[in-house]
Design goal:
The complex is a heterodimer of chains A (141) and B (561). Chain A has 141 residues and is α/β, with parallel strands linked by helices. Chain A contains 6 helices and 5 strands, in the order αβαβαβαβαβα. Chain B is an alpha+beta fold and 561 residues long. Chain B is built from 17 helices and 17 strands. Chain B has helices at 3-6, 19-26, 42-53, 72-77, 90-93, 96-112, 159-202, 222-228, 232-235, 246-250, 253-264, 308-358, 363-394, 405-415, 417-423, 439-455, 527-537, and strands at residues 58-62, 67-70, 116-122, 134-143, 149-158, 206-211, 217-219, 266-274, 280-291, 297-306, 401-404, 426-429, 434-437, 462-471, 487-494, 541-546, 552-560. The chains are: A alpha/beta (141), B alpha+beta (561). The A-B interface holds A 19-23, 26, 29, 44-45, 69, 71-72, 97-99, 101, 119-124 and B 336, 339-341, 343-344, 346-348, 350-351, 354-355, 372, 376, 501, 504, 512-519.
């Protein structure tokens, strides 16, 4: 489904906000495991991500992934800022973190996150989790 | 014939008083079976004399014919045909029912010479009094000169008199017994009351006082004296509101409590109360209304306990609990953050190993991920070390000792010698004071702050370290000074580095909180958290001021003598 004819003309885009470049690389590898066509964009932290949305009105990814633990602006704050940007409202947002603090998971759900993925210690497991996320948050054609 | 003749020549001490005597003496005895008085034997004359002079109802029966001579007392009782009956046979003058029984009794005396009595015989009283119509006849023999029984001497006793006498005696006995019982009960009551008063008086731990309806103090015990400090003579007559604080008196608390006790029977309250010397104690009081038989309030008892110690212990415990809760939350947060940050490199290592397994033949991949694994492992080691440093600090119970900050500063600068040279850093500092502190921790504090100043810089670092003494009052706005009257040493670490936005000035002291990416400025995010902990350990305060790109200043306040 991710490599459908329509998506070839208009490829699906993911935006990962994570300060850790290793995690950016791991994320991209996990996506590649099941899709060659999904385009990945990255921001090194929340401040840069929010700035990018403000600077480029045409930037509208299909999915947004936000790491919780980041310097300066943390994932929750970043999510709040993104929620304030009107055109991003319909975009499913998934939070990522190495561990799941129940309070932060609850706060994420409260803010309207579609999912909360605890980063696994394996690319194939992450790949599986991401695939499930895409399946349950399919784009309205 | 005069009475002296009648009684056999003996002089009577007083004149004839008995009315009957006149009849006896005046009667013409010649025609009677007894014959003339002169011819009467001595025993008869003596018996008649006794009879006539007796106040009791008495009769003399003479000879086998039982001829009767009676006195006034008897005549007043028995319905006799007087004076005809005098000297007549008993059978002719008494009612048949009485005579039937009496005759036997009298004959028995005549025959046996032994006294008899006729108990409780029904007698038709002259006055018709039906209530008192029983009498007992006590019959005794009259002996003549030869020792022969020649007559009977009868005394009549009203049974009711005897009865009522007994009854009266019984009644009196009962009354006496009751009185004794009452007296005993009374005495016990008195003793019990005394015991009670004594008990109340002697109670030392409770102030037990009696108030009238207006709250005026009526009595006082040892407990009250102990707790409130007043002697009995100083306080009786005063209103109990003297124990209340000014503000409680203004809000009419004593009156409210009295009213409540009056309306609801009881009022309880806990709060600060005043002693005679003006000091306060934490009192727990119960005021109870006292009622009379008509349920009207006639006063109050007031029992006060001094709970100061308990209150203080409770407050202390509450404070401890609150502190513990905060510490617990901090610990929980710390455990979470620590595990999070420690997991990160571990997770990466596992992931990189997974990648390597798949592409172990590719040399580029091998080199790339071996390096990454090494980096992650090294970072993990650093994190573990810093977590250890941080948690060890909590266990430090070392005493604060005079510490020369000059030595500390020199040691730190020596440690950073290479970095300082490499970065061409310029460090300016004053001559440092000697303060009370833990050398090792202060060394770590200086090392972290100077290390940060060297690390977070794009140009040649310019670092200045200065100090001054400030008054605790000045710090009130900044920190809840433990001793606002004391002086504090203000240490300033100022640099010209990259700085940070002021909004992060508090966040930076949180453990694992980082403002810059790992790639730009390596670090564990523990350094400043450690600094804060060290300063707090010295009962001090730390804060930072900065502007992005314009350097940062860290201010450390430590108590100074």
């Amino acid at each position: 489904m991710f490599d459908s004819a329509s998506s070839k003309h208009n490829p699906m885009t993911c935006f990962l906000i994570d300060d850790d470049i290793d995690d950016q690389e791991i994320f991209a590898m996990a996506i590649r495991e099941f899709s060659e066509s999904i385009q990945c964009f990255f921001a090194d932290d929340g401040v840069k991500a929010v700035a990018k949305f403000h600077q480029d009105d045409s930037f509208l990814p299909n999915y947004i992934f936000i790491d919780i633990n980041m310097p300066r602006m943390d994932g929750i704050e970043c999510f709040q800022q993104i929620r304030n940007i009107q055109r991003l409202n319909p975009v499913p947002v998934c939070m990522l973190s190495t561990s799941a603090d129940p309070a932060i998971v609850a706060r994420s759900k409260e803010l309207g996150a579609s999912d909360f993925i605890v980063k696994p210690a394996s690319i194939s497991v992450l790949s599986e989790l991401l695939r499930n996320f895409f399946d349950s948050n399919q784009l309205i054609k | 014939m005069n009475p002296s003749e009648f009684i056999g020549g003996a002089q009577r001490p007083y004149g004839p008083t008995a009315e009957i005597e006149k009849y006896v003496l005046g009667k013409g005895w010649q025609s009677s079976p007894l014959g003339e008085v002169k011819s009467w034997p001595q025993s008869l004359r003596f018996a008649v004399n006794l009879c006539l002079n007796s106040h009791l109802p008495v009769a003399v029966w003479w000879s086998r014919d039982l001829l009767v001579i009676y006195n006034d007392a008897l005549r007043r009782i028995l319905d006799l045909k007087h004076p005809e009956a005098l000297g007549s046979r008993g059978a002719d003058v008494l009612s048949r029912s009485l005579w039937y029984d009496l005759e036997q009794s009298l004959n028995s005396v005549l025959e046996k010479g032994q006294p008899t009595d006729l108990q409780n015989h029904v007698v038709s009283f002259k006055n018709g009094d039906t209530e008192r119509n029983r009498a007992t006849f006590y019959n005794v023999p009259i002996f003549d000169e030869n020792g022969k029984v020649s007559g009977v001497f009868t005394t009549l006793v009203d049974s009711d008199i005897t009865d009522s006498r007994t009854k009266a005696d019984e009644l009196e006995l009962k009354v006496r017994e009751r009185t004794r019982l009452l007296e005993r009960t009374n005495e016990e009551l008195k003793k019990s009351e005394e015991r009670y008063i004594k008990m109340t008086e002697e109670v030392q731990d409770y102030a037990i006082i009696l108030l009238d309806v207006d709250g005026t103090i009526l009595n006082w015990n040892k407990g009250a004296q102990n707790i409130k400090g007043y002697a009995e003579n100083e306080i009786i007559g005063q209103n109990f509101s003297v124990f209340y604080l000014e503000e409680d008196r203004k809000s009419n608390l004593p009156e409210k409590l009295i009213r409540m006790a009056g309306e609801e029977g009881r009022a309880m309250h806990e709060g600060l109360r005043k002693r005679k010397d003006g000091s306060t104690f934490w009192g727990s009081i119960v005021i109870t209304a006292l009622h009379d038989d008509n349920n009207k309030v006639i006063g109050f008892t007031k029992v006060t306990r001094d709970l100061t110690e308990r209150k203080m212990a409770e407050d202390k415990m509450r404070q401890h609990t609150a502190e513990l809760e905060v510490k617990n939350r901090q610990l929980e947060q710390f455990a979470y953050i620590a595990s999070h940050d420690l997991q990160e490199p571990l997770r990466k290592i596992q992931t990189f190993v997974e990648i390597l397994e798949k592409k172990i033949d590719n040399e580029d991949v091998r080199n790339r991920y071996y390096t990454k694994i090494t980096t992650s492992a090294k970072r993990m080691g650093q994190l573990i070390q810093s977590v250890l440093n941080y948690s060890r600090l909590s266990q430090t119970h070392e005493l604060l000792l005079p510490t020369d900050l000059n030595i500390i500063l020199e040691n730190v600068l020596a440690d950073y010698e290479l970095l300082i040279e490499e970065k061409k850093a310029v460090i300016r500092y004053d001559r440092m004071p000697i303060i009370q502190g833990i050398e090792l921790l202060l060394g770590q504090l200086f090392s972290n702050l100077i290390g940060n100043a060297l690390k977070f810089s794009e140009t040649e670092p310019l670092i200045s370290i200065s100090w001054r003494i400030v008054n605790g009052q000045e710090l009130k706005k900044l920190m809840p000074a433990e001793d606002p009257s004391g002086n504090y040493l203000e240490l300033t670490f100022k640099d010209n580095g990259i700085g940070f936005e002021q909004q992060y000035s508090e966040k930076i002291f949180n453990i694992f909180q980082r403002l810059n990416s790992q790639e730009d400025y390596a670090g564990t995010g523990v350094g400043l958290a450690l600094c804060k902990k060290i300063v707090e350990h010295h009962h001090g305060y730390i804060y930072a001021r900065s502007e992005l790109g314009r350097g940062a200043s860290f201010f450390v306040y430590l108590p100074s003598k």
